[in-house]
Amino acid sequence: MPRRGSREGRGFVKLVPSRRPGGPFREGAFATRLHDERTAAILGVALGVSFLLLFLTGLVSHLIQHPPGWFAWPSRPAGLYRITQGFHIAAGLASIPLLLAKLWVAYPRLFHWPPVNDIGHAIERLSLLPLVGGSLFMLASGLFSIAGWEPWGFFFPAAHLWAAWVTIGALIVHIGAKLPVTRRVLARASRREPDPDPLTEGMTRRGLFATVGASIAVVTLATLGETVKPLRRLSLLAVRDPGDGPQGFPVNKSAVAAGVTTTALDPDYRLTIKGKVAAARSFTLDELRAMPSHEATLPIACVDGWSASETWKGVRLLDLLNQAGAGQDASVFVESLQKRGAYRAALLNPDHAHDADTLLAYEVNGEPLHIDHGYPLRLVAPNQPGVMQTKWVSRLVVR
Ligand SMILES: Nc1nc2c(c(=O)[nH]1)N[C@H]1C(S)=C(S)[C@@H](COP(=O)(O)O)O[C@H]1N2
Ligand SMILES: [Mo]
Question: Is the pTM of this model over 0.90?
Answer without folding.
Answer: yes
